[in-house]
Amino acid sequence: MGYDKILIPLDGSESAELALPYAQKLAGKETTLVLFSVCPEDEQRLCRLNSAYLGLQAGVLQTSGFKAVSHTEPGDLADRIKEYVVKEGVDLIVVCRQGHSDLKREEKVLQNLVTENSSLLLVKPGSGQPRLSKILLPLDGSIVSENMVPRVIRLAQTTKAEVVLLSVNGYPEIPSDRPPSAKPSWEEYALILMKEVREQARDYLDRIAADCRKAGVPAKTSVVFGGVAEGIVRAAEDNRADVIAMATHARTGLDRWVYGSVAATVSTSTTLPMLLVRGSERA
Q1: Which residues contact residue 30 at a Cβ distance below 8 angstroms, ignoring those fewer than 6 apart?
Q2: Whole-angstrom Cα distance, residue 63 to residue 58?
Q3: Taking a C-beta distance cutoff of 8 angstroms, is the pair 245, 282 a contact?
Q4: 16 in any annotated domain
Q5: Of 7, 216, 231, 237, whose CB is crowded by the most CB atoms within 10 A?
Q6: DSSP readout, 268-282?
Q7: For the segment 149-207, what is each residue's pLDDT rounded down to a tens digit?
């Protein structure tokens, strides 16, 4: 199951155009690539220039055999895109982070683009040529994280990728009331606890992996210990992942990740593209 419509925001910069090769790699024969731009409402001349630029880019894509259209309108970028996504049924937004821009403003725009209606593939300026053969999906057992599974399966089916399912767990902490003389020793007891956690996490990931394989997607599992964001980045490197997939927020309990901060930390710690979706508590 591929993508019907992929939207690529473009502003005329070379960095924004780095999203185009990824969009092309994800586009099937029936996929429409939507080149999208906005301009200030009082800048009609800029709107005409943007429209002409997008028309040229769409023409290049059409010459290469892709279905491509261009769309320019006045207003706020995130607001216009969100409206267009809902109205036109866009499946995926592919956007490249602007390394030279106002990072706070850009972060706000990106947060607004991540919704439950469509996935967002965030490309980094240092990502290089698109390689989408291995996707890392961190899971914590919550509904929010598991809602990423169908999105990742869809991406993996489109790119014929393998999925690495990851569980990151904290190290056991010594109880304040445990006497030093207690048997077994804390070190021995910690190893027992870590073994139990590893087995439970492995069983959980194996169930998700079975769902992936039923959909024709190869999957393997990995259980690690340490800080969540650091563990995700390290696992991406160890498994030579090409994409990291994450939900962007969740309500937090004692054993739940704060997805907003984790995703933000991971994003600033890697040059890998990230597949992002607004988290949902609905099963």
Answers
A1: 2, 4, 67
A2: 9
A3: no
A4: yes
A5: 7
A6: HH--S-EEEE---S-
A7: 999 999 999 999 999 999 999 887 766 566 666 666 667 777 888 899 999 999 999 99
For the chain, what percent of residues have pLDDT higher than 90?
52
Q: Is residue 129 part of a domain?
A: no
- Would 260 be classed as within a structural domain? yes
Distance CA 8, CA 215 (A): 28
Q: Domain limits at 83?
A: 5-123
pTM of the predicted model as reported, rounded to 2 decimal places: 0.86
CA atoms within 13 A on the CB side of 173: 5
- What is the DSSP code string of 34-48? EEEEEE-TT-HHHHH
Same domain, 32 and 114: yes
- Chain-centroid distance of CA 8 in Å reads 15
One domain, residues 97 and 225:
no
Domain count of the fold of the chain: 2
CATH of the domain at 260: 3.40.50.620
For residue 206, the one-letter residue type is D
Taking alpha carbons only, the member of 168, 145, 165 closest to residue 279 is: 145
DSSP H or E run through 213: helix 186-214
Residue 104 lies in a domain: yes
